[in-house]
């Protein structure tokens, strides 16, 4: 990649993925079992650290695992390469004798699962809801994919890790409804791409899919620039990787993987599944322009997704909430804002609890 193109890609990535700090709002109180569940190794996963409650409310725990599918990865902050945190939020008064549906909530970039943000968002959205939520590590820029040409990072089979290993591990160690009818996949930003990517690749696993300001159209050159740029930004993970590490070259005629993995262009696999996605328009682009432009970009990909689903005759819910007015208290229509994501997740949880099998 020539220097001007790499610089442009870095700017795209910074514009799309600069997220605000995690919400500092307190999570609701809850009651649950005195001790968190214990997990056995299995399905290619080794449990390095058993679950530990994150606070005295005993609803949310974190655990640390290792996998042969992503033995090392580009880290952010104080992450340890090869150690994967998993955040799990249980229903209030979780009962091991009751089977619960599960929502897999995929984080954005550059984020981590074991954050106050995802704990708070999830606990608020699932208060008094009999639903388990699992947020696995997706790396600062893992893109929920099996990379085609990883460099210094080595094997990066994120999709295999999550779909072939983590889901059966959760089903084997928690009281879940271990079927498509009891399972949802959703995510924010990079995670919104991941959710639709996973749902289209493995529709037999999921009864519902959701995206919160996700990157749904990989034919959009802005999305390609953002993804390529993410490989060149240390704040999204170190060490850096070749620009073509994740999906190969983004330039025609070498861009076949990009085309094959674009969620908006492979919607037929979603037929019969519940489908929902959410985006704002960025509102005033002169106010916090990085987050405003980033959200405007991802909204464009949601419009393409909606058009493709409509053309295919596939029912879906597209919440195009503009500047956020009337959508969520404090939502300003910009990218990565907790009030907007909270409103998205609240709405989505209501949808899946109407559709999924539940206790």
Description:
The chain is an alpha/beta fold and 359 residues long. It is 31% helix and 15% strand. The protein has 8 helices and 9 strands. It has helices at 3-17, 116-125, 158-173, 190-201, 221-230, 256-260, 289-312, 338-355; strands at 45-53, 60-67, 84-89, 102-106, 132-136, 183-188, 208-212, 274-279, 317-320. A 9-stranded mixed beta sheet has the order 1-2-3-5-4-6-7-8-9, sandwiched between helices. Helix 7 (289-312) links the parallel strand 8 and strand 9 (317-320). The longest helix is centred in the last third of the chain and has 24 residues, at 289-312. It is globular. The protein starts with a helix and ends with a helix. 53% of the residues are buried.
Largest sheet: 9 strands, mixed
Terminal-residue CA separation: 53 Å
Poorly predicted regions? 1-32
- Let me know the number of strands: 9
Structure annotation, total helices: 8
Relative helix content:
25-40%
What is the alpha-carbon Rg in Å?
19 Å
Q: What share of residues are in beta strands?
A: 15-25%
The chain-level structural class is alpha/beta
Mean pLDDT: 92
